[in-house]
Amino acid sequence: MEKPLNRHVTLWFAFVLMALTSPLQSAERPNILLIVSDDQGYNDLGILGNGILTPALDRLASEGTRLTNFYVAWPACTPSRASLLTGRYPQRNGVYDMIRNEAPDYGLRYSAEEYAVTFERVGGMDEREVMIPSVLKSAGYKSGIFGKWDLGTLKRYLPTSRGFDEFYGFTNTGIDYYTHERYGVPSMVRNLSPTIADKGTYCTYLFQREALRFIDEHATTDPFFLYVPFNAPHNSSALDPEIRSSVQAPEKYKKRYPPVDPETRITPKYRYGTPATVATPDARRRDYRAAVTCMDDAIGTMLDALEQKQILDNTIVIFFSDNGGSGGADNAPLRGHKAQTWEGGIRVPCIVRWPAGGVKAGEVNDAFLSSLELLPSLVAASGAELPKDVVLDGFDWWPTLRGEVSSPREEMFWKRRDLIAARVGKWKWVKMGKSGGLFDLDNDIGEQNDLSQSHPQIQAMLKQRYANWVSEMESAEPRGPFRDY
C-alpha cells in the first residue's frame, strides 16, 4: 500500500487554491453551536428508523450533512472531550485516560474531606494545552459552555480559566440528573463557584435554559462559540443501584414510548457484592430513549432561537456523540460499544449544518473524518489564527464537507490501556484483549470477517503504522496529568 504523502501534498495545494474563491472568505463571521451528547449510539437517530424520537436531530440532518464515517479519538468520556477541544490525540495532549475515581464502582460514598484529595478532584488537563475558545477569542468570539466539562475540577482547570467566558455545568464525568451529585458529591459549578441553586431540576432543562440565555444575549452583539455537552443519555452516577442501572428521564418523555413491565428485577450479583434491585433491560432501553428525546427537544429550542434571531443559516451547528453508545443504546450495524476499540466504541453519529459555508442540505457524506478536525476547521471558518508552535492532528474539513475534495485523512489510531486499533484507508486492525483481527471496513463495517490470515502483509503494515504513531506520541513534548516527566 502506497504512503499517502503525495496525496496529502496535492490536497493541500488544492486547499490553498480554493481559498481564493471559498465562500468562507466572504461570509460574515459565523456563530458556532457545538452540541455533544454522551454515550449516544451510532443508530440512535430517528431518521435511521429504529423507533427513537429525535425530530430536531432529524431536522438538522435534512438541513445539513450527516457524516457516516466520523470518529472520536477515544472510546470514552474524558480523553474524547480533551481531543475535540484541542485538535490533538489524547496521547499528545496528555489526557489519555479517565479523570475519575474508581472506588464508587464498589459502593463507596466519599466524605467531603476524602473527595477533596482524590484524583478526580485534583487531576486536570495540562494548563499548557490550547483549546478552541482561546483560539477563537483572537477573532472576537464570546464563548460559553453549558453542560459536562470533565477536564478537571480545580479552579485552574475550569472552563473560564481555559478561554471560555461563561460556564454552568458539572465538572466531572457523570452526575445524578436531579440532585446533580456524583456519588453523593455536589458537582454543579457556575464559572468558578460551586452551586446547588438548581438542585432538584432535571439537568437537561438547565443546560437548555443557559444555552438559550446565551444565544439571546450574544445573537446581535458578538460572534459566539456555544458548546453544549449534554450528559444525556449517559447512565446516572448515583449510588442507588435502581437509579444507577439506568438513565434518568422525565416521566413525560418516558410516556412517549411503549409501557414497560416489569420496570425492575432483582439481581443476586451486583458490583457492590449484594443482591440489588436494578432496571430491566427493557426499562433501561426506554429510559435511554426518553433521555435522548428530552435532549432532542432542547436542541430544537436552540435551533428555533437561532432562526428567530435570523442567524441560523450562518451559524455552524455541529452535533455528535462523545463516544460509542452504551446501556440502552443501539450501535447497529457496528460491533462493540463504549470503552472498546471496535467501531461501536469510536465511530459515532455526526451532523453538520452551515448553509452559508456551502454545507449541503440532506447530504450523506461517508468521508473519513474525526473530531480532531474541529479546531482547525473552526479556526478556518472564523478567521482566527492557528495557535503557534502547537502540533495539531486534524485539518480543515470544509472542502471535504462541500464535496470539493476527498478527505485528507488516511489513517487514525486509538489506544485505551491495552485496547488498541489502527485504521489506514479501508483497513482496520483491532486488538481487543483476546479478540481482534484485521477488517475491511468498506465491505465489513460490522467487523465480522477477520482477514488477518489471508492478508498478513496488510496486517503487518497496520501494525507498523501503529508502532510509528506510538513512537511519535512518546516523543512529543510531555503533558500531564499522566505522563512521567
Automatic annotation (TrEMBL):
<dbReference type="InterPro" id="IPR017850">
    <property type="entry name" value="Alkaline_phosphatase_core_sf"/>
</dbReference>
<protein>
    <submittedName>
        <fullName>Sulfatase-like hydrolase/transferase</fullName>
    </submittedName>
</protein>
<dbReference type="InterPro" id="IPR000917">
    <property type="entry name" value="Sulfatase_N"/>
</dbReference>
<dbReference type="InterPro" id="IPR050738">
    <property type="entry name" value="Sulfatase"/>
</dbReference>
<keyword id="KW-0378">Hydrolase</keyword>
<dbReference type="Pfam" id="PF00884">
    <property type="entry name" value="Sulfatase"/>
</dbReference>
<feature type="domain" description="Sulfatase N-terminal">
    <location>
        <begin position="30"/>
        <end position="383"/>
    </location>
</feature>
<comment type="similarity">
    <text>Belongs to the sulfatase family.</text>
</comment>
